[in-house]
Amino acid sequence: MDTYGFSGLPGGMIDQNGGAPLYVGIVGYWWATTEFDVSSAYREGMYSANSNLNSLVNESPVTKSYGFSVRCIAN
């Protein structure tokens, strides 16, 4: 758990065509709170490589047909 109380694990993703999970244990994507338009949104991500945790910086929106994780926060 980090200083913000986040302890996300790399749960992988579902590609835009559906199907089995991909990259489980390697990549973690979470939907960002910012929507781009009715069919696209932003994501946040991280991946594990060589025992290091790396942030994915991707400022391009992706189609909402991908399956990414969601982090729920209570107000």
What is the fold's blueprint, element by element?
Layout lengths: L26 E11 L2 E10 L2 E5 L5 E2 L12
Q: Per DSSP, what share of the residues sits in E-state strands of 2 or more residues?
A: 35-45%
Over the alpha carbons, how many angstroms does the gyration radius reach?
A: 13 Å
Q: Give a count of the beta strands, DSSP E runs of length 2 or more.
A: 4
The helix count comes to: 0
Shape: globular
Low-confidence stretches: none
Percent helix: under 10%
Mean pLDDT score, rounded?
81
Tally of separate domains:
1
- Biggest sheet layout: 4 strands, antiparallel
Indicate the structural class. Answer: mainly beta
What does this structure look like?
The chain has one domain (1-75). It has strands at residues 27-37, 40-49, 52-56, 62-63. Helix content is 0%, strand content 37%. It is mostly beta strands. The protein contains no helices and four strands. The mean pLDDT is 81. 5% of the residues are buried. Strands 1, 2, 3 and 4 form a four-stranded antiparallel β-sheet that branches.
